[in-house]
Design brief:
The structure is a homodimer. The first copy, chain A, is α/β, with parallel strands linked by helices. Chain A has 9 helices and 11 strands. In chain A, the strands form 3 sheets. Chain A has a 6-stranded parallel beta sheet, sandwiched between helices. In chain A, strand 2 and strand 3 form a beta hairpin. The longest helix of chain A has 17 residues. The first copy, chain A, binds a DNA duplex (22 and 22 nucleotides) through helix 1, helix 3 and strand 2.
Chain lengths: ~250, ~250
DNA sequence: ATTTGTGAATGGGTTCACAGCA
DNA sequence: TGCTGTGAACCCATTCACAAAT
């Protein structure tokens, strides 16, 4: 109940669900409930109760038997675990359609990841204004990263230059990359990489749709997880790759 | 080598990788190679060779020992399996920042999923032009879906109305949904759902970054996808939820 | 000599079911 | 009595390693 020693290593799949639990708890924020059961949290997060309990146990067991979990404390623990006690500015590379949209997307800043800079390789775009930001040259990436103290970079360029951009981000000191370009990118082992490929998501949906239409009810559940993002036909939402996408 | 009978049920994780293989093969398109080894394809897709072979075996074994796989035939099989032999127009619900960006995103049409319609609940937006499309009222969703013959819907609304929109999509006949709203959404078992939550991706990266900075080199691989998109620190890129996002 | 296809081994994650505690 | 925490069982996925095929 009090401070617990650092838990066992947290499984990948659990990590991917923590943000979902966090979001669910935040929605409960004002609610009168000071405590929440694994059952209720499971419902909010779209997973089952046993999974919630096991996941939370990796954080160190902050529940009380017969009662449930203290909401405030859970929020605190999860935020700390996820490193969300401070804002992490991100730099977006590639200011085309997608990059621009991401730059304007409220959701990032709202959840602790303000867009701190935009860079592009096209000299014609450099100096252009997007929201509050002015597009900078990719040549200045090291300076931009240093200025922001940024360690997170988003790649929103065409696929052809994604690897090159990733290399530049790494060279500039970025340690976490979220890749939106439809290309396989590799990074050194000390850099984290996640990818979001919108067309791939649709193709996966297309697969299951085809299956269903063909008469085979391939009902699956999943979660990535992820990575993914579960994927397939099923009802509730779960993370991971399979059935549901990610959250 | 010739026509093979329908293979065993294809695992979720394999389905999530097929689009990546497909993309890799397409990049090889013009190349002179008529054939490709599992080793080479693995390299292009950012996975290991054993996985490629097992995955392809679910499609029915179209390789030739000592030689490799026929590129053309693989492309054909995968496209067929993924239902990509025809275009699937999609309808985007919610034309805010994100919805607008998605509407302009080339990547969808390029890969067989042209945006066929945009709908929004805000009367002020209805009638507005975005690219070639005119925003329609969400009240007309059933008609829009019927007109397009669409079975895929994208939710790009605020979280608060995501479930409501999902219900409307389902009622209108949509059988596959890609949810971008940061909310848990549930659908009937005969409807496929995947989710993409951009802030969640960043939070996962934040977790691993924190771990690393804290001295623990938590090197993991993933794919979500995994998570999903796989998720964590690691080098190569893979699909699924975890380590890598999805592509 | 190569490279596939696949059983067997291994590992991670989910679910069960119940003991332990409030 | 209620709900957490967790070992055990189960299931899916990855990886190994080698026999089969060309």
């Amino acid at each position: 109940m009090t401070d617990r020693p650092p838990r066992r290593r947290i499984p990948e799949a659990t990590v991917a669900r923590l943000p979902v639990y966090l979001r669910s708890l935040l929605e409960l924020a004002d609610g009168p409930a000071a405590t929440i059961s694994s059952e209720r949290l499971a419902e909010l997060a779209g997973v089952n109760a046993a999974k919630v309990r096991k996941d939370l146990s990796y954080l160190g067991s902050y529940g009380t038997r017969g009662v449930g979990y203290d909401v405030e404390y859970l929020l605190f623990q999860m935020s700390r675990e996820l490193g969300l006690t401070q804002d992490w500015p991100v730099v977006i590379v590639g200011v085309g359609n997608l990059g621009q949209a991401l730059a304007n997307y409220r959701g990032f800043a709202d959840r602790g990841f303000p867009v701190g800079a935009l860079v592009d390789a096209d000299p014609a775009k450099v100096g252009e204004r997007v929201g509050d930001l002015v597009i900078e040259s990719i040549d200045d990436l090291p300076a931009v990263v240093a200025r922001l103290g940024t360690t997170i970079g988003l790649i929103a360029t065409p696929a052809a230059v994604a690897q090159e951009v990733a290399d530049e981000l790494v060279a500039a000191g970025v340690r976490s990359i979220l890749n939106f370009a439809p290309a396989v990118v590799t990074v050194p082992p000390d850099v984290s990489l996640r990818k979001v490929d919108l067309a791939v998501e649709l193709q996966i949906l297309s697969f299951y749709q085809r299956r269903r239409t063909a008469g085979l009810a391939a009902a699956v559940e999943a979660s990535a997880r992820g990575d993914g993002n579960g994927a397939a036909p099923g009802s509730s939402g779960v993370p991971t790759i399979p059935a549901e996408a990610s959250e």
